[in-house]
Write a structure and sequence with these properties.
alpha+beta; single chain; 25% strand
Length: 93
């Protein structure tokens, strides 16, 4: 994962808290349920922060977690969503 890449939800995808299902991503094909830190990670993917900024912010909130683990798991989560075209990465200007 490139530290300067800027992740954001792809066009047509929206993060939403559903009273019945909890946090979900609404996608054109349906709904993806989220659990654990997934919703918090995606809240950070607003198009204004790069990957390194997001990892630092999450590590600040989950300070008991090892920084390398936060980086690895956040990157893997975003990569899985990118493979499904739910998250896209933009290059910094």
């Amino acid at each position: 994962m490139n530290a300067t890449a800027i992740p954001r939800l792809a066009r047509g995808c929206r993060l939403q808290e559903d009273p019945a299902q909890g946090w979900v991503i609404l996608i054109p094909e349906g709904v993806v349920r989220l659990s654990g830190p997934g919703p918090r990670i995606l809240q950070c993917c607003d198009g204004s922060r790069n990957f390194a900024d997001i990892v630092r912010e999450l590590h600040g909130e989950f300070a008991s977690a090892d920084l390398a683990r936060v980086e690895s798991e956040t990157g893997a989560f975003l990569d899985r969503l990118a493979a499904r075209r739910i998250v896209v990465f933009e290059s910094p200007e």
